[in-house]
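Write out this protein's structure.
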Amino acid sequence: MKRVLLPRIPQGTKAVIFDTNVFLAYVLGNSLGTHLQRCPQTKNFDITHVAMLATIARACDGRMATTPFILTETSYFLEKLAKNFSDALHLLQGVVVAAGLAERYVESAKLMVRGQYIELGLADMSLLEASTQGYYVVTTDFRLIGKIEKANGSGLNFTNWMYDVS
C-alpha cells in the first residue's frame, strides 16, 4: 500500500475550505459513494479521493469552513441528482452538521469591486479572499489555484495531488 503524504498545510490555518466540486464529492462520498460517478462534477473522484479529503480535514484538526456560495452551488447539484429536493437537503445537512462546518461570509458587493471578480465570479472570489485570510482552500480549478498562489494565499490543487498519491 502506498503511503499518502499530506500536503503542506501552513501552521495556524483557521480551517480547510473545499471548493464546490470538491465539497460535492465529499458530501456524496460520505453519504452515497455510489453517486460519485453519476454526477458530472464528481465523475473523476472515487471513494479513495474522499478518504484523502477527510485526511486533509483532519490535518486542520477537523476544522472545516465553507461559504454561502459553495453551499448554494452544492445544494443545486445535489438537487439535480436526488429524486426529490428534500433528499438532497438531507444529504447536505448531514455532512454540514456532522463536520461542524463554519460558514465564512463576505458581502457580494465587496467581492464584486475587486479586479478579478469578472474573471472568477463570486464563489471563486470568496475562496481567493479566504485563502489570504488564513484558510486553506482545496480546489480542482487550475485557474483559481493560480490566482491563490499569485496572491500568496494558501491552497491545494487537489487534481494534481490526488494523482500524485493514488
